[in-house]
Amino acid sequence: MAKPITISNFKGMGNLPDAGTSPNEPTVILNSFVTPQGRILTKNGYTSFVSLSGAHSLSNDCSVMLCVAADVLYRIDSGVAISLGSVATHGSKMNYVEVNGKVYMSCKGWTGIYDIANKEVTAWGLTIPDKPVITGMDGDLPPGTYSICYTGIDDNGQAGGNSEIVQVSFENQTMGIALVRRPANCLCWMTDTNGGEYYLVGNTSDISTITSPYNTIPLTSLDVIPPPKMTCLHLFAGRIWGCVEKKLYYSEAGIYEWFKNANSFEFSKDIIGISSVDTGLYISSKDSDWFLSGTDPLRMQINKVGNGSVAGAIAYTEVPELGRVPVWIGRKGLILGGRQSITENKLDIPFVDEGAGLALKQDGITQVLFTLKVSKNMATDLDDIFEENRLYQL
Predict the structure, then answer these.
(1) How many whole angstroms from its chain centre is CA 275?
(2) Can you list the positions of beta strands (E) in 70-215?
(3) 116 and 152 in contact (C-beta within 8 Å)?
(4) Per-residue pLDDT tens for 157-183?
(5) Which residue among 80, 232, 313, 351 is least packed, with the fewest CB closer than 10 Å?
């Protein structure tokens, strides 16, 4: 049976020669720490899970671990980095939202979907087809004016956004319309005589002529655009939200492939963060924070609630009486659930451009950890905590 080794006045272990420093000065203890009783305990330390130089954009709140390195998307599985293909980040971070077995991904230069079951990356949304090219032919269309467009169609039969619209008119006779060099894998839609709603022409994607009226299946994806290359993706109220500079976009409810230019809010500053509570969305810039109250975008009210936040320095935690709420670093310190700062008069947290946040449970205790990208010459109260062994109680 191993016997404990008794050491008096343990002062740590170092890998440098003794410089004759005072025993009262800080000492590096390698992979261990000493209890007040003098016991030497092993630190938990760090483990290199996978070697991937320059990795960033680690997926959070997803059932799969994804990240980016050197503009390549990776899935991390059992300590192995598996390449999923090239992405164009344009220097930005990748953003993720998981819903219905798919991870929707976006950055400033690329969008895509990771299908968890099939372990493959697919396009997010459909390409807009070219404008129809038409000529006249014999047929039974009544005289009048007709508008025609194309949409793409995916493997599940869902239509995408419409092409440019072409109009044709004829008088005093019935006619037909021939579709010249119709693109593959698209549907054709046409209005009733003299305008109105668009309806599907035929029931397949290979119709090349229109010789009689069609008015059964309406076009519901009119004005849909491909998903913008957004940052700050967020799932709220059955929609995916994201931003492009000052513009906040939201998808159609339950149809995460459908976005519209009209389905958006315009803010005065570039958006750097989106978070939510049950009653609405928090939108952050470096200089301002806003709250969009409600869950219906057409009825949301916008109110300014803060003076700016640190990009990326946000996490979620459970709070009694409040439920699951966001907590982030703002100009006045740690902001809990969008309410007043809980550190404003207790701790001077530096306000910087970028950071990160993480919530976890350790020994049954919920912890929220933040790291901030602070320049080496920036003096903060955090330096004093380590130098003077002072710790503030919040």
Answers:
(1) 10
(2) 72-77, 80-86, 95-99, 102-106, 111-115, 120-122, 133-141, 144-153, 159-162, 166-170, 175-180, 186-191, 198-200, 209-210
(3) no
(4) 899 999 999 999 999 899 999 999 988
(5) 80
